[in-house]
Amino acid sequence: MEIYKKTSTKIFGGTAESLKDELEGLKDSLQKSDIGILYRTYVSLMLMTSMLVFIAAFGFSFGTAFFVLGETVLYSVIGGFGVGMLSASVTFVLVYYYPVSKASSRQKSIKNNLPFAINHMSAIASSKVPPYVIFKLLAEFDEYGQVSREAQKIVRDVEVFGHDIITALKQAAERTPSTEFQEFLSGLISVEETGGNVVEFLDVQADQAMFDYKQKRKRYLDTLSTYADFYTAVLIAAPLFLVAVLTIMSMVGGEVFGMDIRDAMTLGIYGAIPLMNTAFIAFIHFTQPEVT
């Protein structure tokens, strides 16, 4: 992998630098995604991978069209070029948006774990320890997901890079993908710089964060109640009514949308109804608040 990185950077490093303005959003996403790859290296890998995919797709498509299907050289080249460009474009887009997806995943983790992490920090601060010790203790708890990861990087900046806690907090606020955590760190920085009461600040933040968390949960439960009513009416009552009607119609005979009634019942019972239930379960899964 290291050889691949070095080769990619050597070939496309200059191109990556020239695209810095056009790919400014990617640079920001890389920082917030915590992937641990420099912008120049990542863009070089992205270009190198896209080029290799193009070559592989072009060669496979050309060979299939020319040797297997017996097409002309011109048609095989055009078809291979089209498939190659499509494959390379898809690869480029997927690799480009991977840091965006990673940053979004980290943002969700921070958002959902932050209320509990702040509550923990408030409990630690009650013993009158400095903010650095608070983050050092928080970094030891993996239960808080990416919040713990952010705390680990703050501790690293202090212990390894020799920054003071204020500088470390400012750098964390700049690189975090979560606006909630950024606002929390900004508030903590202000309290530290003005000599305010850190314990009182954390107590207020903990109460507010837990209140907001409970409100969001309550709103989601209310929404879930609406979903339950929808499920009962559309995915339980309606299919039962439809099956009953089709059963009666099957005794008489006829067709539904050009299909035999028995075939329509089979398709609905073993196809449409399970598919709709699966889609509903997936919808609930992807819309529920996560705590990771």
Describe this structure in words.
A two-stranded antiparallel ribbon has the order 1-2. It is flat and about 85 Å long. The protein folds into three domains: 2-102; 108-211; 213-287. The model has no long low-confidence stretch (mean pLDDT 91). It has helices at residues 2-18, 24-33, 39-68, 73-125, 131-138, 146-159, 165-175, 179-194, 198-252, 261-287; strands spanning 255-256, 259-260. It has 292 residues and is mainly alpha-helical. The chain is built from ten helices and two strands.
Give me some keywords for this one.
3 domains; two-stranded antiparallel ribbon; 2 strands; single chain; 83% helix; mainly alpha; 292 residues; 10 helices; flat
Summary of the model, kept short:
By secondary structure, this protein is mostly helical. The chain contains 10 helices and 2 strands. It folds into 3 domains: 2-102; 108-211; 213-287.
